[in-house]
Amino acid sequence: MRIAMWSGPRNLSTAMMYAFGNRADFAVVDEPFYAVYLARTGLAHPMRAEVLAAQSDDPETVIQALTGPIPGNKPHFYQKHMCHHMIDGVPRDWIGGMRNVFLIRHPARVVASYSEKHDERTLEALGFVQQAEIFDTVAGDNPIVIDSHDIRADPEGMLRRLCAALDLDWDPGMLHWPAGGHPSDGAWAPHWYGAVHRSTGFAGAEGALPDLTGEAAELAEAALPYYRRLEAVKL
């Protein structure tokens, strides 16, 4: 099985990669299209040079790695993807061959968290529109939607449901991982992954939605319809 997990930034996506990476039957890959995205957009993201040095910026090369032999001869392959990396010119025909899962999070939480790490606060950068587009592309193939808020509230319950939906055996190792990161972490991990590197499992339940104002509130409001569409069909 090849799982393509489609998410946006600041959305429990790294913790989910660690959960699957802690299974003996899975290889994992971290945001394989990041260098493609940076090379084609020219954006000045943190650690841009390190990302471009660490990954191929040729989408066809990336796709071959995603659809070719699974690393380490593992039975399954978990692929952590950022929806906004799938810009115009990056082929999407390979996506239909994956088991597609969509990890969603309320826009207010995403905007509040993202603002702490990067100044590029736009609807495009947060990936909500692209996530809905990709979902529509594979809607006939029974894609799965899971909400990070629900996972944090009940990690074992929600991960058990996800495994059942994927026809995977439950592995309790998904609930915990060693502190300090994963060998498959992307080159950008030192900037973005501080909290999850200190963790050994999923954080506890989230509190109330953050109180946003000004441009941040407007951005969250603009993203909300796309979130609501997928929320309506979540596990």
What's this, in brief?
With about 240 residues, the chain is α/β, with parallel strands linked by helices.
Topology:
Elements: E1 2-7, H1 13-21, E2 26-30, H2 34-41, H3 48-54, H4 59-67, E3 76-82, E4 99-104, H5 107-114, H6 123-126, H7 128-137, E5 144-147, H8 148-153, H9 155-165, H10 189-192, H11 194-198, H12 214-231
Parallel strand pairs: 1-3, 1-4, 2-3, 4-5
Helix pairs in contact: 2-3, 5-12, 7-12
Structure description:
By secondary structure, this protein is α/β, with parallel strands linked by helices. It has a single domain, classed as Rossmann fold, CATH 3.40.50. The protein has twelve helices and five strands. It has helices at residues 13-21, 34-41, 48-54, 59-67, 107-114, 123-126, 128-137, 148-153, 155-165, 189-192, 194-198, 214-231, and strands at 2-7, 26-30, 76-82, 99-104, 144-147. A five-stranded parallel beta sheet has the order 2-3-1-4-5. α2 crosses α3 (48-54), α5 (107-114) packs across α12 and α7 packs parallel to α12 (214-231). It is globular and about 50 Å long. The relative contact order is 0.21.
